[in-house]
C-alpha cells in the first residue's frame, strides 16, 4: 500500500454538460451567466448540443475516466475513494463535497479535467471550488497543471504517431485548442505570463519532435464573445483554407486543449472543421484525445501520490517532459486573474 497521508479522497472536477434536450438551455445559462456572450452565439451553441440530441459527451467521458482511475488505484495499492463533481451541471461540486464530508473526508485531492492555465481552465475552477467548500470542514488540494506531464504528452504522441502512420506523406500536423480572449491569455499563469499559449506551444513542440515531424501549427476553435473583443487566432477553419492555398493536401488535427472528446471536439472539429476540409478537398484525420489511455489514468495516481508526499514535507519527483518546469502546486494570488471577477479562489 502507498502512503497517501494526509489525503483521504480524490475529487474529479469537471465542467459538466447536459444529457437531455431540456437541459441544454439551463446549462448554457449556468455557463454564461454574467459573461456578456451575445444571444446569437448562445443559440448557435445550443444547436450544437441539440444536434447531438441534447447530450454532451463530457459526462460519459468523465464516468469512464472515473471508473478507470478507480480500477488503476485498486490495482496499484492506492486506497483512496474517487468522487466526481462539476462546475456547471449535475453532479454539482457542492453536492459532491457535502457527500464527501458526510462520508468523513477532510483532505481532498482535486484533479481538474483541464490541463492548462487560464481563467477558464484554472482560476474559475478554483473560484468554484472555494465557493462550493464554504462552510464545510475540508481542505482542497488542486493538483498541478499537467500539460507537460508524460502521462498527458505520451498518449497524444502515441495517437499522433498512429494517425500519421495511416496518413499520406506530407500530412500537416495541426494542433488545436480552445480560443480564449487575448487578455485572458496574457493573464494566464500571472500578469504578462501568457502561460496558456506557451504551455500549448510546448505540448505541440514536444509531440511534433517525438514523431519526427518538426513542421506544425497551433490554431484555435470555439471562439465566443462579442466580435470586437480579440481572441486567439487563427481559427482552425481559416487555417485549413490557408494551408490548402499553400498546396497542403492532407492534415492531421490534434485537439490538445481537451482531455477527451468534448462537444468542441465532436462539433467544432469533427463536424465543422472536417466539413471545411472536405470542401477544400483536404484529406482530414482527427487524432484521438488522452481520454482513458492507461498512461493518462496512471498520471492521476502519480499526481496524487506526488501531492501527498509534498504535503508530508517530502520533496517528491515531479515527472515532466520538455523545457518548462513542473507547474506549481499552489497558484499565486494573481494567477489567471480576470478583471471582471471579484470572487475568492482556492490557492
Ligand atoms: C479554455 C476553455 C476550456 C478548456 C478548459 C476546461 O476544460 O475547462 C473550456 C472548456 C469547455 N467549455 C465548454 C462549454 C462552453 N464554454 C463556453 C464558453 C467559454 N469557454 C471558454 C474557454 C474554455 N472553455 C471561454 C473563454 C468562454 C466564454 C465565456 C467565458 O468567458 O466563460 C460556453 C458558452 C457558449 C460559448 O460562449 O461558446 C459553453 C457551452 C465545455 C463543455 C463541453 C461539452 O459539453 O462537452 C468545456 C469542457
Ligand atoms: Fe468553454
Give a short summary of the structure.
Helix content is 43%, strand content 13%.
Descriptors:
Rossmann fold, 2 domains, 4-stranded parallel β-sheet, globular, binds coproporphyrin III, binds fe (ii) ion, heme biosynthesis, Ferrochelatase_N, metal-binding
What can you see in these coordinates?
The protein contains eleven helices and eight strands. Helix 9 packs parallel to helix 10. The strands form two sheets. Strands 2-1-3-4 form a four-stranded parallel β-sheet, with helices on both faces. The protein has a four-stranded parallel β-sheet with strand order 6-5-7-8, sandwiched between helices. The longest helix is centred in the first third of the chain and has 18 residues. The chain is of the alpha/beta class. It folds into two domains: 158 residues, Rossmann fold (3-Layer(aba) Sandwich), CATH 3.40.50; 137 residues, 3-Layer(aba) Sandwich (Rossmann fold). It starts with 8 loop residues before the first strand and ends in a 36-residue tail after the last helix. Bound molecules: coproporphyrin III and fe (ii) ion. Coproporphyrin III (HT9) binds next to helix 1, helix 2, helix 5 and helix 10.
Amino acid at each position: 500500500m502507498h502512503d497517501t497521508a494526509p489525503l483521504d479522497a480524490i475529487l474529479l472536477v469537471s465542467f459538466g454538460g447536459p444529457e437531455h434536450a431540456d437541459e441544454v438551455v439551463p446549462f448554457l445559462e449556468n455557463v454564461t451567466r454574467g459573461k456578456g456572450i451575445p444571444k446569437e452565439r448562445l443559440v448557435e451553441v445550443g444547436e450544437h448540443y441539440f444536434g447531438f440530441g441534447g447530450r454532451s459527451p463530457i459526462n460519459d467521458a468523465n464516468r469512464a475516466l472515473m471508473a478507470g482511475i478507480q480500477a488503476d488505484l485498486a490495482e496499484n495499492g492506492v486506497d483512496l475513494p474517487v468522487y466526481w463533481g462539476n462546475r456547471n451541471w449535475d453532479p454539482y461540486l457542492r453536492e459532491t463535497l457535502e457527500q464527501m464530508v458526510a462520508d468523513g473526508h477532510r483532505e481532498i485531492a482535486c484533479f481538474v479535467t483541464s490541463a492548462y492555465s487560464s481563467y477558464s481552465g484554472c482560476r474559475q475552477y478554483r473560484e468554484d471550488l472555494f465557493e462550493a467548500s464554504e462552510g464545510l470542514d475540508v481542505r482542497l488540494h488542486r493538483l498541478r497543471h499537467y500539460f507537460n506531464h508524460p502521462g498527458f504528452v505520451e498518449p497524444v504522441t502515441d495517437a499522433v504517431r498512429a494517425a500519421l502512420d495511416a496518413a499520406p506523406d506530407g500530412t500537416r500536423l495541426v494542433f488545436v485548442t480552445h480560443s480564449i480572449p487575448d487578455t485572458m491569455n496574457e493573464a494566464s499563469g500571472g500578469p504578462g505570463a501568457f502561460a496558456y499559449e506557451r504551455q500549448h506551444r510546448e505540448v505541440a513542440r514536444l509531440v511534433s519532435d517525438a514523431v519526427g515531424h518538426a513542421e506544425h501549427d497551433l490554431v484555435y476553435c470555439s471562439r465566443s464573445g462579442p466580435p470586437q473583443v480579440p481572441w486567439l487566432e487563427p481559427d482552425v477553419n481559416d487555417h485549413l483554407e490557408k494551408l490548402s492555398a499553400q498546396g497542403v493536401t492532407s492534415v492531421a488535427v490534434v485537439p490538445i486543449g481537451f482531455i477527451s472528446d468534448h462537444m468542441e471536439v465532436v462539433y467544432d472539429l469533427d463536424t465543422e472543421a472536417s466539413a471545411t476540409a472536405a470542401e477544400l478537398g483536404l484529406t482530414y484525420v482527427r487524432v484521438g484525445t488522452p481520454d482513458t489511455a492507461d498512461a493518462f489514468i496512471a498520471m492521476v495516481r502519480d499526481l496524487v501520490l506526488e501531492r501527498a508526499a509534498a504535503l508530508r514535507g517530502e520533496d517528491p519527483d515531479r515527472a515532466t517532459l520538455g523545457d518548462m518546469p513542473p507547474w506549481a502546486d499552489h497558484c499565486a494570488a494573481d494567477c489567471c486573474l480576470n478583471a471582471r471577477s471579484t470572487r475568492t479562489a482556492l490557492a
